[in-house]
Amino acid sequence: MAEAVADEKKKKISTWRALGLALSNRKSGFMALFGFAQGLPPALFLGTLYAWLSEAEVDLETMGVFSLVGLAYAFQFLWSPLLDKVDIPGLRRLGKRKQWIAPMQLIVGIALLIMSFLDPKSALGWFSLLAAIGAFASATQDIAINAWRIDVADETATLDILSTITQMGFRLAALIGGALGLIIAERIGWPQTYVIMGAIMLGIGIAGLFAPDASVEKRSAATVAASEDEVAELYNAGEVTEKVRNHALIGVGLLWGWAIVTVVVFMVRSMTAAPENRPDVTEFTTTFGPLIVIATVVLPAFIAAWIAKQKQVGRNVIVSAPGVGAGHSVKFTDHLYRALVLPLVEFVGRMGWSLVLILALVLTYRICDSIWGVFAYPFYLGELNYSGDQVAFASKFFGVFAIILGLALGGWIITQFGRMFTLTLGAALAAATNLLYADLAIGGQLMQAGSDAIGFTALVNFIAGVFQMSEIEGLARLTFTIFWENLAIGIAGAAYIAWLSSIVAKKYAAVQYALLASLTLLVGTLGRGALGQMIEERGYYFVFIFTTLIGVIAVILCLAEWYRESRGKAAAGVVAPELGEQAA
């Protein structure tokens, strides 16, 4: 008995020691910096920028056109293959990922600085161009940073810890670029605020040059030869024939090409056409959004599955391999195939039918908070009649703190109980917090009682008094509800990013992660129109009960994925080590 207690104590000490080593690791420090760099540009290009435009008396329709820069984040997977295969001349010596990360951060910083010297109303064309360039560079650095995190993870700075740190940096940046940006602008003006933010991004870009990288060798002849050898493997025995590869490449190329042209044409028309001739953003999202995802993800996945099946049954495959140089030379189409098609073939071939479960989980995991997010302010301000100051106090001050706390707590739970336990717990909590909003929709008596019972009401009233806020009646139950929801979002976010990072292959991390991440908010985005109609017809209470039930689907899928992973490890004779065991 005493030995068991001693072993348990030793295990806890080892876990905390490993956690401390992970957080003090150089990679963790840069991960926090990179996570911050991922969160700051969206806050500035898609959030506080509209406050500046409003102050400059830019009309609402033009502001709606500005929102199109967000398409860079939604469709970043379209150019993700380039980051896996294309090197920037003269920068490859920085590392496979850093050659993209640092320049993109510098471009974002320069765009912000130049914007600070422009008047949004008189130089609107240049202003929109810089915002689009900055958003594109920001989305590109996101692809590279996500792949960097997967590449550099090791037994000390584990993938779970790095994923948690990423989200903490992201949320902190959202707070600084959002709420703090508004406060600073109120005191020193918008141009000066954007100078500060641009300087921060430039500083991160320079600091990022010194970050470790999984591959920092110089671009030598040996490196080029190694890359050629990887492509030459396509001619090994058992690989599909060149004819099959070319058919697959043409199919995927046409689908992705159509998607890229569609998005670019839409953005150009929106930015250049007269107001009366501009295409409708909502109509484009609801009509072409699903078609673009089908063309870039669903149909290419079927093509990849067909190729994987050909290899599995030995049909249309190379029987004997004379080798490159003996009748076969590496071609440009071989490089394109490896960049566009092979990441999908690897993922589909490795996952098999489990891919259906994984895609279902990706589509539903964040649906509870994503599907009703755009209706949050109408609910707070219109339905519950809270003031803007009260909502800002609850969502920005307490809400952001709760997310950061949830991320930290999620990271700790992962180290103690494992990734899949935390993923399932996060899904359950995210679903359950919709019940808190259901109570708020019918008066919030339970939320008020809970807030009173733990002393939360007294804390909120005290802090609200410090800020000299008036009419604080009901503020505590609103803050109480938002606090617990955001805490759950933080826990779920830490586990989800860690899980998503764990199922992609390092070799194709940029493409595979970008594709999966693009699907995360798809159902929520497409379902908002129907949800808005449901709110009009049934009311908020019914909708919150409905979204809770939807969240239960994600919990069930998490349990199924947990079982799948456990069964796979058991079949392979592998026992996943805890964090403390990994670092010991």
Automatic annotation (TrEMBL):
Pfam families found in the cross-reference section: Acatn (PF13000)
GO terms for biological process, alphabetical: acetyl-CoA transmembrane transport
Gene Ontology MF term list: acetyl-CoA transmembrane transporter activity
Membrane topology, from the record: Multi-pass membrane protein
GO cellular component: membrane
Segments traversing the membrane: 30-51, 63-79, 100-118, 124-148, 169-188, 194-211, 248-268, 288-308, 355-380, 392-414, 421-447, 453-470, 482-504, 510-527, 539-563
Keyword set includes Transmembrane helix: yes
UniProt keyword list: Membrane, Transmembrane, Transmembrane helix, Transport
Subcellular location: Membrane
InterPro entries registered for this protein in UniProt: AcetylCoA_trans_1-like, AmpG_permease/AT-1, MFS_trans_sf
Source organism superkingdom: Bacteria
PANTHER family, per the entry: MAJOR FACILITATOR SUPERFAMILY DOMAIN-CONTAINING PROTEIN 3 (PTHR12778:SF10), SOLUTE CARRIER FAMILY 33 ACETYL-COA TRANSPORTER -RELATED (PTHR12778)
Protein name (record): MFS transporter, PAT family, beta-lactamase induction signal transducer AmpG
